[in-house]
Write a structure and sequence with these properties.
CATH architecture of the largest domain: Up-down Bundle
Helix content: over 70%
Radius of gyration: 19 Å
Number of domains: 2
Order of helices and strands: HEHHEEHHHHHHHH
Strand order of the largest sheet: 1-3-2
CATH superfamily of the largest domain: GntR ligand-binding domain-like
Mean pLDDT: 89
Shape: globular
Number of helices: 11
Amino acid sequence: MTAAGVGRTSQATALEQAYDAILEAILEGEIPAGAPLRLQELSTTFGMSMMPIREALRQLESIGVVEVIPRKGARVREISADDLIDTYRTRILLEGALCRRAAENFDTSDEVAARAALERQRLALLDGDAGEARLAHKDFHYSIYRAAGSEWMLRSIESTWHNSERYRIASEQEGDQLTLRRKEHEQMLRACVRHRPDEARLALRAHLISTVAHLDKSLAKRLDILTAGDCC
């Protein structure tokens, strides 16, 4: 491999590390909504050069977690009631379609992957490992969505997934709420295993509305009304 090739590989790795580190800090609330994202500060905090930090911010802007304001620089996007509703309504529409298609195609290997992710999440929560629990939660949902067999549909949900995580994590779910979320996950999975597309879509919708209700019941009611007629 040429020196230039080595440089590109090294830079790609640094970019991935910068992207993951900044996204993790945003999702965990270590960098709060509205906070400025200054290159020098981020470079010092994460021990990286400014080049991968700058590119990571561009990529985070492309998924809607970061916004760049002319002559002011980058900052974490603000959160709001309207943004929450828009985010979850979009998730219900797109992920509901994935659930329907997944339920039509679901096989034993898909079920094994989904149950393994649920168990990872359960163990991570017992250990107090919030980061691993969050990754396992995503793996559970995506193990279902991958069964839909559409790479483009999977790509289409990435932005709203990450944005919704900012709200979900802020809700600090524990105890009875975690038990409820697990039951909702089991309902989604059961519908897919039984090849019941409409039931799977409705289980996903109920799960997301329930998640919003833990944050704000009035917003959940609004979301319920807005999505009642949405067709997947």
